[in-house]
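Message: I would value a second opinion on how I read folds in C-alpha cell form. Give me a protein, with the fold worked out from its sequence. Write it directly below this note and I will take it from there.
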Amino acid sequence: MKSSRLRMRTNPPENLDEAKRLIAECIEHQNQRLSLSGLGLRRLPEEVGSLTWLTALDLRDNLISELPEFIGKLMKLESLTLSENPLRLIPEELYLLTNLRSLSISHVQPSAVSSTIGQLVNLTTLNLDDLELDKFPDWILNLKNLKGLSLEGNRLKELPDSIGELSELEILALRQNELKELPLSLRGLKELRSLIIDPIVGIPSEIITVFNAHQILDYYARVKGKRQPINEFKLILVGQGGVGKTTLVHRLTKNKYKEFRRTPGINITKWPVQIENDQVHAHIWDFGGQEIMHGTHRFFMTERALYLVLISGREGTEDHAEYWLSLVRSFAGFADVLPNRSYPKAVHPYLLALMRKFQLCHPLDDKGEKYLIPELLTKEEPELLDKEFPPDKCLGFEYRYDTVLPEGLLPRFIVETYFLREPKLVWRTGAVLERANCRALVRGDVQGRQVVIRVTGVGNGQRELLGIIREHFERIHRSFEKLPVTELVRSRTTRTSLCRTRS
C-alpha cells in the first residue's frame, strides 16, 4: 500500500493576535485581499465573516480542520486558498461563492473534497494536489469553465473518457499518480496546451518534459495505434569554443568546409540522413562552448540523445575531454542518485569541484558535507518582502535585459554572494543580502527580463552594499558575450533616471 503523501508537520503556536491585527487592518482600509497563512490558526476567526467585500482569501499552512458556515457570506470571493490544513470538512454554504474563479485545497484530508465544489460552476482554476484520490471525482465534469486543473500527487489509475467534456481546459497536471494510459478524448480538447505527466507507455522523456499537450497526445496516439515511427533523433555537439562544432555541422549538412566565428547560444540544424531504406531526420544542436560552461544550456541536455564531444589536439584542448564527458553524464538524465559503479565516492569531489568551478553550487558548512544548488531552490519567494522593502523608502536600482535574462545568471549571483545572505532568505530567482546594518532585496524576473534591487538602511552603508551587488553583476555580465543590458537608478520618488546601456 502506498504511503500517505500528506505532509508531516509540527504544530506552530497559534498567532491569533496577528490574525486579528490583519483583519482589523483589512476592515480599516477595505482591502480586497487578506492573507492569514502560516499563523497556526485552529479555526477561522468569526470577524472574517464580516469582510463581505473580499475578493481573495489565503488560509494556507494553518491548522484549520473545519471551514465555518459563514464562509458563504463572502460572496465576492474570486480566489480561495485552503491548502496545507488538516481540513476534513467543507460546508455546503461554499456553493454560495458564485464568483469564485480559483480554488486550491491541496494537502488536506481527502474527506474535504466533496461534490459541493462541483457546484462552483464559474471556477477556472482548481488545485486538488496530494489528496490520495484513487478515483477521478465525477463532479469535476460540472466545471465547464475550467482552464487549469491540477491533480498531482494522488493515486489515480485512470481518467474517464468524459474528461474530454472540459472543452475550455488549457492546463492539466497529472504527475505522481499511477496512470498507465491516457484517454484519447484528451485530443479533442482544442484549448489544451500544457499536459504535465510522468512517462507513460512508451512516450520518451524528451516529449514529456516539454509539456506540450499536442505533441504528447499525438505521440501517444501514434504509439497506441502502433503507427509508423517518426524516424527522428537528436544529435548534440559539445566542446570548447572554437574547436570547430559549427564547421562540422556545415560539413555534414552542406558537404562543404567553412570556418565560422564562435556560436552565441545554441544553433539547431535539420539534417536528413538515409539509413538503409528509411529517411531519418537528425536535429543537430550546436552548443556554444562559452555559454555551456556557465550552465545556461544544461536544461537542453537530455537522456535520449546522441552526444558528440569535439576536442582539438592542436590547441591543447584534449585535457578537456573528461570534463565534457562528465558534464554530459551529469546532465543527460543521471542529476538523482549517481550509480556507484560509474561514480564511486572517489570521483564525487571531482564532480563537486566542477560544479563549484562553474558556480553552480556552494558549500553550506566548513566540512563541505552540504551544498546549496540554486537551481533546485523553490520558486516561491518569502512573503511580505514588498512590505519590508517599500520602493519609496529604499535605494533602488534595476537591470533591464533587452533580449533575454539568461537562466544561469541569477543562480550564479546567489552562489557568489552567499557570504552576504541572511539565513533561509533565498529562492531560485532572488535573495535578501545583509551588510553593516543594511539589507538588500535582489529579485529577478525571467519573464519580464529584469533584476530589481532595493536597499534599505541608514548612512553610507546603503550605497556600499549596492556597490558590492553591482560589482558582482558587472563581473557576471562581462562573462556573457554581447549581453545588452540597461542600468536604471530608481529614486525614492516615482522618477527613474537612466544610467547607461551596455552590450
The longest strand covers residues 266-275. Residues 461-478 form the longest helix (18 residues). Residues 130 and 153 are 4 Å apart (CA to CA).
